[in-house]
């Protein structure tokens, strides 16, 4: 079998040309020698931060013994075949040229094999003789009904993000029906905006009438986007005005959340904990009210996370907890994206700023790999304004499964159906953050 080996060290990839096996060794001796050779070469990649073939002689390599053997013998054998010839033929000066020609190689099988948690080896060649990669639906599934559109593309995206590491990753998530359940106790769960009861029935009715007028305009496909954006801003500002005029208090928010039918998906706490441990920021985008979302987090999760920031409309209260105004520009359904980071105000003082990101907006935008979570195809626009390198999009298809599954599968990389838990995303995020 002829194979091509690639040694990847951090962001450098070194392509080693193919070679055939030697035939004058016994099979056992050959396997042991090949396994030893690849360990030696990986040791030098780690030790020297380079592969200087002129300096690394055969004799020198044979003196080296390291305990960490490859975890996958077939891959070790395939890579060793290439290493045997390349040590005598290639110099360090020629390697960057070879790398520039063959990187990226298009037909990699993206399975990772770790050496001292520093170097990874992939092998591409005769696919019939190489163990196939893990099924992508197994990477993202955890007992849920899941669809993966393009498995090969998803494999590549996962590998690219893992190579860059958690320092380049951010998570962008919608709130309602994405982090929260669509169904709660057999009934449609409340949204963060819909749960609010002002404590003044007259103004609750007025806000409902605004909804009945503007919502059909929101979903009307014949209205140009720039006109619709003006209508949405008009709707949001009128609603905010009614909240102020009707005397909304923070106490009413607490009571509304306590009496609401809203709950987080199973696994959300574990997802936040994993991302917090990996120092991956989570941006929760919402066209609703940040103060309500924070209260939901407080009452339902009973804790805060230092890596979570809420990008939403934020209120200003007086000393008596009466609503006075709103901070910043209005965030509505058509500008709920990374442009809104600069519009978002600091976290509410009542949370003691514990939810604030350590990263400022500019540093968050430097994280060019994105894991995006949403429940509508329109949520894909949340990454607008970010010049991302790689994005994995995850959609939650909660209702109308049969009529929407094709469009969701075409739009998202991964789709969870029937109001699934968050455990599949936890598994995927753990895979992305592993080194």
From TrEMBL:
It catalyses: a ribonucleoside 5'-phosphate + H2O = a ribonucleoside + phosphate. GO terms for cellular component: cytoplasm. Keywords: Hydrolase, Magnesium, Membrane, Metal-binding, Nucleotide metabolism, Nucleotide-binding, Transmembrane, Transmembrane helix. The chain crosses the membrane at residues 75-98. GO terms for biological process: nucleotide metabolic process. Gene3D superfamilies: HAD superfamily/HAD-like, Pyrimidine 5'-nucleotidase (UMPH-1), N-terminal domain. Its EC number is 3.1.3.5. It holds the Pfam family UMPH-1. One of its GO terms (molecular function) is nucleotide binding. Belongs to the pyrimidine 5'-nucleotidase family. This is 5'-nucleotidase.
């Amino acid at each position: 079998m002829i194979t091509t080996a690639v040694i990847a060290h951090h962001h450098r990839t070194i392509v080693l040309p193919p070679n055939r096996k030697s035939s004058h060794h016994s099979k056992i001796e050959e396997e042991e020698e090949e396994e030893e050779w690849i360990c030696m070469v990986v040791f030098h990649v780690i030790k020297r931060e380079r592969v200087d073939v002129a300096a690394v002689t055969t004799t020198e390599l044979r003196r080296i013994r390291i305990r960490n053997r490859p975890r996958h013998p077939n891959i070790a054998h395939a890579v060793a075949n290439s290493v045997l010839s390349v040590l005598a033929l290639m110099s360090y000066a020629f390697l960057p040229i070879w790398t520039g020609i063959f990187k990226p190689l298009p037909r990699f099988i993206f399975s990772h094999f770790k050496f001292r948690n520093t170097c990874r080896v992939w092998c591409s060649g005769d696919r019939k003789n190489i163990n196939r990669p893990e099924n992508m639906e197994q990477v993202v599934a955890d007992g849920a009904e899941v669809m993966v559109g393009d498995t090969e593309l998803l494999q590549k995206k996962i590998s690219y993000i893992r190579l860059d590491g958690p320092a380049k990753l951010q998570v962008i998530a919608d709130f309602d029906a994405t982090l929260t359940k669509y169904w709660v106790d057999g009934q449609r769960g409340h949204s963060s905006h819909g749960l609010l009861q002002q404590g003044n029935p007259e103004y609750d009715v007025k806000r409902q009438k605004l909804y009945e007028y503007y919502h059909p305009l929101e979903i009307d496909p014949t209205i140009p986007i720039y006109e619709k954006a003006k209508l949405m801003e008009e709707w949001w500002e009128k609603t905010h005005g009614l909240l102020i005029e009707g005397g909304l208090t923070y106490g009413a928010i607490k009571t509304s959340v306590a009496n609401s039918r809203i709950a987080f998906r199973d696994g959300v706490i574990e997802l936040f904990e994993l991302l917090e441990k990996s120092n991956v920021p989570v941006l929760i985008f919402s066209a609703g009210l940040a103060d309500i979302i924070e209260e939901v987090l407080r009452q339902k999760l009973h804790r805060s996370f230092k890596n979570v920031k809420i990008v939403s409309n934020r209120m200003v209260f007086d000393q008596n907890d009466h609503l006075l105004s709103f901070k910043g520009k209005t965030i509505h359904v058509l500008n709920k994206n990374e442009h809104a980071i600069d519009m978002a105000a600091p976290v509410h003082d009542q949370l003691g700023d514990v939810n604030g990101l350590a990263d400022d907006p500019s540093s968050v935008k430097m994280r060019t790999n994105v894991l995006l979570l949403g429940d509508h195809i329109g949520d894909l626009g949340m990454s607008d304004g970010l010049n991302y390198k790689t994005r994995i999009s995850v959609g939650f298809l909660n209702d109308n499964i049969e009529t929407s599954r094709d469009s969701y599968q075409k739009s998202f990389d991964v789709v969870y159906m029937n109001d699934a838990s968050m455990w599949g995303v936890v598994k995927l995020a753990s895979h992305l953050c592993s080194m």
